[in-house]
Amino acid sequence: MTILGIDPGLSGGLAWENLGFLKLRTMPTVKVGKGNQIDEQALIVMLKEDRPDHAWIELVHAMPKQGVCSMFTFGCGWGLVRGILAGMGIPYSLVSPQGWQKVMLAGQPRGSEYLVASRIWPGQDFRASERCKVQHEGLVDAALICEYGRRALAGG
User: Fold this and answer.
1) I need a labelling partner for 66 at 20 to 30 A (CA). Which of 19, 36, 126, 155 fits?
2) What is the mean pLDDT of the chain?
C-alpha cells in the first residue's frame, strides 16, 4: 500500500511511502504576479506518476498575526490539494499538526522533527536539492505525516 503525506504549504512537501521506501518531492509552485501559488498541473502529474492508495494532509488553519493575503493564498492551496485528490478519486484523511506530532515526536523535545525522521529513514536526504545545505522542513514534515498515516491505517 502506498501512503502519501502532504505538508500543503507553498514551502511544503509530499512524501510517498511503500514498503519502507520513501520518495520525497517539494510542493510544486509557479510564479504568479509578485507571489507563488501551487502548480496544480504539476501536482496532478506527480499524483498520476505515483498514485497513492491513501493520502494524509496536514489540517491547517489561520494563525494569529498572519496577513490576510498570505492566509488566503495558504487556504486556497490547501483546498486545491484536497480538490485534486478528491477529483482523482484518491481517498484522504486530515490530521492536525498536534495530532501527528503527538504520535511521531512522543518523548522528543520541540524541533526534533528532523532527528526523528532521520532515525526512521537513516541515510534519507531531506534537502530540497543537492545544492541546499539544510534539511527542507516541508519534506521532513511530509515524511512524518506519511509515517503517521501509515501507522494509523495499520491500526497502531
Assistant:
1) 126
2) 91
